[in-house]
Design goal:
Strand 6 and strand 7 form a beta hairpin. The chain is an alpha+beta fold and 390 residues long. The strands form three sheets. The protein has a five-stranded mixed β-sheet with strand order 1-2-3-4-5. It is globular and about 75 Å long. Helix 13 packs across helix 14. It has a domain of 131 residues.
């Protein structure tokens, strides 16, 4: 193992007899210089050229004990150590992992390990600052990673990315699959030509003939399969009807099952506090981050606005760039305004523009163009009072 300068200095200090934590070391070169019974009771250990004697009467490789104690002395900073050296010993007492002792990793920073809860509590005061810093770094690594696609994913039929414009796709209440307008239109044309009944393009379940029937199908699926998409849809219906308490419960359950849109709706409710829901900035930020990590472009754009409100413009710009590369037009507008003010670098803005165009192009196809035009015409006719809304 390669020793840094500070490690070598601490090694000399510790081997010279300085007591650190529950273990003190006395320099020696042979096994004949073991501590006596009184010294063992006082926690005195002996450091040989290749192993150490501890109060637990176990031999531990010298480098492991000194490594753990030197790290403990500097507050648990593992940043300059190799990965294999970070987890070889308990960060508090220095004992190495063996058949009888299983070390458990700190769940927050993933950088140190402990042999017991007692050691973890004793080391907390020294490790807290470094732990918090490393945990924040790990969180940012996840938060600022560019998602491969939006939270909508791909159409399960044509396998092209779904457009983030919700008018260009439709969720089937029978199977909770989001189908693009192109595939839904192609299925409709096939059924018309063959004289078939209207069914779901994906699961072939008969399509609901009314909104009430679609709601009943959605409720049945939510209750029977614990489907997060169906549960979120129930929450959205309650939200639109003004039943915010029930909506909150549905969104919370959906988010717990992995619904990205569930996290997003929780963030809006914690921000606006409708229907007596208590406003909470911390929870709003958490759910915005979870939705952003899941690829929700609107959540990412809103998170950029929150960061700007807090004066962290560099982080805000990163969020807008990520959302823009997902194809979000609102984030692109936000980024353009900041670029004209000189708050965003030219290269970053150009990269975001290219990413935005690539994301939009990936969602387009001739079949989708036909489907989107057809369904847009249907919506326009309904708005003018022609036809039925089904």
């Amino acid at each position: 193992m390669a020793w840094s300068k500070i490690d070598c200095e601490l090694h000399d200090i510790l081997c010279g007899g300085k007591k650190e934590g529950n273990l003190s070391l006395r320099h020696g070169q042979t096994d004949d210089n073991l501590p006596n019974d009184n010294e063992q009771e006082q926690g005195v250990g002996i450091c040989c050229s290749w192993r150490c004697w501890t109060i637990s009467n176990k031999y531990i490789p010298c480098s492991r004990v000194v490594l753990a104690l030197s790290i403990s002395a500097v507050g648990g900073d593992y940043s300059n150590l190799e990965e294999e050296d970070k987890v070889m010993s308990c960060a508090a007492c220095g004992i190495a992992e063996d058949d009888d002792i299983e070390l458990k990793t700190c769940t927050a920073c993933k950088s140190v390990r402990y042999c017991s809860v007692t050691c973890q509590k004793e080391h907390r005061s020294k490790h807290k600052r470094a732990c918090k810093k490393r945990a924040a770094e790990l969180r940012d690594e996840i938060l600022f990673k560019q998602p491969e696609s939006s939270h909508l994913g791909d159409c399960p039929i044509c396998c092209l990315p779904l457009p983030i414009d919700h008018t260009k796709s439709n969720m089937m209440p029978c199977c909770s699959k989001i189908i693009c307008a192109g595939c839904e239109y192609a299925n409709f044309v096939r059924e018309q030509e063959a004289g078939l009944k209207h069914t779901c393009p994906f699961c072939r379940h008969p399509m609901a003939k009314s909104e009430e029937e679609a709601n009943r199908t959605n409720v049945k699926r939510a209750e029977s399969s614990n489907d997060p998409a169906a549960i979120h849809r129930m929450g959205a219906r309650c939200y639109n009807e003004g039943d915010y308490e029930s909506a909150f419960e549905y969104f919370y359950k959906a988010a717990g099952l992995g619904s990205v849109t569930g996290h997003y709706m929780l963030s809006t409710m914690y921000r606006n506090g409708p229907g007596g829901i208590k406003k909470d900035k911390k929870k709003e930020l958490y759910h915005l981050e979870e939705a952003s990590i899941g690829g929700h472009p609107t959540a990412r754009n809103n998170l950029g606005c929150v960061e700007e409100e807090n004066g962290r413009l560099d982080r805000a710009a990163k969020h807008w760039i990520i959302a823009t590369k997902l194809g979000d037009d609102i984030a692109l507008s936000s980024l353009r305004v900041r670029y004209t003010r000189g708050l965003v670098e030219k290269d970053d803005y150009a990269s975001a523009l290219r990413g935005h165009q690539a994301a939009v192009d990936a969602t387009e196809s001739p079949q989708r163009d036909k489907g989107e035009a057809y369904f847009k015409l249907g919506r326009d006719l309904i708005a003018l009072g022609y036809g039925e809304k089904n």
